[in-house]
Write a structure and sequence with these properties.
mainly alpha
């Protein structure tokens, strides 16, 4: 947070996705919420991202094909194994 406990636009942008997913601690969430309520530009950014997420939710109602799921699982195993060996 910036001086006097105020949150900057840069902080909101840096944490926007985590903020919208509620993956920030409660103090930061509250500070970002206050900032979004007070800053028209950041409110527009947050609303635009929420709109995109809603469009994606409505458009992506089908499950992934099983072949894709297998490829992703294999990639995750390789990545995990490689990361542990380094």
């Amino acid at each position: 947070m910036t001086e006097m406990g105020r949150t900057s636009c840069e902080e909101l942008i840096e944490h926007l996705f985590m903020y919208l997913d509620r993956e920030v601690d409660s103090a930061l969430y509250d500070a970002l919420t206050r900032h979004v309520e007070e800053c028209g530009h950041c409110r527009e950014l947050a609303e635009a991202e929420m709109h995109v997420r809603e469009l994606l939710r409505r458009s992506c109602c089908q499950g992934a094909p099983e072949e894709l799921r297998v490829i992703i699982r294999q990639s995750l195993r390789v990545t995990t194994f490689t990361s542990q060996c380094e």
